[in-house]
Amino acid sequence: MLDSRIIEKLKAIVGAGNVATGAQELLCYGYDATQMEFHPDAVVHPASAEEVSAVLKLANAERFPVFPRGAGSGFTGGALPKGGGVVLVTTRMNRILRIDTENLIAEVEPGVVTEQFQLEVEKLGLFYPPDPASLKFSTLGGNVAENAGGPRCVKYGVTRDFVMGLEVVLPTGEIIRTGGETYKGVVGYDLTRLLCGSEGTLGVITKIIFKLLPLPDAKKTMLTIFDSIDGAAKAVSTIIGNKIIPTTLEFMDHATLQCVEKRFSLGIPETGRAVLLIEVDGDRELIEKQAGRIQELVKPLGLVECMVAKDAAESEALWKVRRLVSPSLRDVNPTKYNEDIVVPRSRVPDVIRRIDAIAQKYAIPIVNFGHAGDGNIHVNVMIDKEIEGQEEKAHGAIKEIFQAALDLGGTMSGEHGVGLAKQPYISLELKPEQVAAMQAIKRALDPNNILNPGKMFPV
Which pLDDT score, from 0 to 100, does residue 306 have? Predict the structure, then answer.
């Protein structure tokens, strides 16, 4: 519990109206997209790197923890104030500072909403590809801190592939810049890439320089339905093996299709066992050829039906199948554990079979969908916490799901990070020597363990 003296000092730094201590306000910043909840002692809303610096210097002097937070849309509890302390919210820093159309870069503050940024650069004929599912409300600072991905990663890469430079406040309060505005630069360690995906444990991001691309001329969307998981997975490797890199290759398994069809009656054929939502973009003539070639390639692979959008409205209708997945899942069970394992593309059928066996072993529903193009599967363990023993079953299943991904040469998280939720399982993937090296970096930058303590590594 922070004493009133510290609260007054925080008010002096960011302004009295930007410090919250009331019960209702604290409640709002004590949860994210997980099932966890921890209440902070205070919430501060700084408006500049200098204010963030002053808060962190005060935290080091008074020894209280600080938890950076954007929109709070994370799936692993990475911004939650476990143990109490100060939540530092970056949403007041929400300006697009400049968009440079000559050098194809943009400089933004961390509180800019992802979709807002995409729309602004597209007005100028430019393109920012990373598109996490939360893009309508997640902020760019949080995207960088978690190294967010999305459906377009298979062609364009994840957030870190577009971050050229950062302004960061270190845990001890120093303000530094990493990287820059040039596409090349090898002076010193690459701190920019170190900070991308560091989950707010190594610094608070206050400015970001992004690389941009020219906006593609057109796009083409196809919904392909297969009679087996193997056919859908083979389609992915066949398309890419024929030198076509789609913008997106979204996968939905039979359990997912059943959820969507039961609730929304979209007319998905009963023989459908897996769906790929495929989108290509680029030159208009080229994508027409690519779409035709994709149809030829997937036809012998157990294709049940192929729907090709003729215009933007039809494209949106096809994407509706994917977007209706999340609201459909609540019909299965009220509580969802959303994991995001990754395996090599060719091993997707193998991991789905392993997950099906795990679901049968624990007698709980597990629904799978995600980004087949890069092997990133969102595994949704669905339970009713009101039923005794179901929560324990879920945690047992999750551990086995992670192990299955690792056995197949994968990882237990492709987009969501570790935070608190995956912390108990980190030893499944990282050896003690790896963890020790990472903890040494944390100690060097944050000797008093002030910034987002207790995250990622076992305490």
Answer: 96
| Per-residue pLDDT, 427 | 96
φ/ψ (deg, to 5) at 151: -60, -30
**CB distance 348 to 251 below 8 Å:** yes
Q: Domains in the chain, ordered, with CATH?
A: 4-89 (3.30.43.10), 96-214 (3.30.465.10), 218-327 (3.30.70.2190), 332-416 (3.30.70.2740)
d(Cα 88, Cα 18) in Å, to the nearest integer? 10
422-445 per-residue burial string, b: 16 or more CB within 10 A, e: under 16? bbebbeebbeeeebeebeeebeeb
- E strands within 131-226? 163-169, 175-179, 204-211, 213-214, 218-226
Cα separation, 260 vs 159, whole angstroms: 30
Measured distance CA(415)–CA(412) in Å, rounded: 10
Q: Give the pLDDT confidence of 6-15 residue by residue, as tens digits.
A: 999 999 999 9
Question: Residue 405 — pLDDT band, cuts 50, 70, 90?
Answer: very high
Nearest to 281 by CA among 369, 222, 346: 222
Cα–Cα distance, 64 to 82 (Å, whole number): 12
Of 370, 366, 303, which Cα lies nearest the Cα of 154? 370
Long-range contact list for 263-272, CB < 8 A, 24+ apart?
263/324, 263/327, 263/328, 263/331, 264/324, 264/328, 266/320, 266/321, 266/324, 268/225, 268/321, 269/225, 269/304, 269/305, 271/227, 271/304, 272/225, 272/226, 272/227, 272/304, 272/305
- Average pLDDT in the chain: 95
Q: What is the mean pLDDT of residues 86-115?
A: 98
Tell me, what DSSP letter sits at residue 290?
Answer: H
Q: How far is CA 222 from CA 85, 235, 314, 344, in A?
A: 49, 13, 10, 23
3-state DSSP call for residue 292? helix
Which pLDDT score, from 0 to 100, does residue 391 have? 94
Q: What 8-state DSSP symbol labels residue 373?
A: G
Q: pTM above the 0.70 mark?
A: yes
Asked if residue 367 lies in contact with residue 255, where contact means CB atoms within 8 angstroms, the answer is yes
pLDDT of residue 458: 80
Residue 291's identity, in one-letter code, is A
HSE value, Cβ hemisphere, 13 Å, CA-based, for 154: 29
Over residues 289-309, the mean pLDDT reads 96
C-alpha 188/C-alpha 179 separation (Å) is: 10
- For the chain, the C-alpha Rg in angstroms (whole number) is 23
Confidence of residue 434 (pLDDT cuts 50, 70, 90): very high
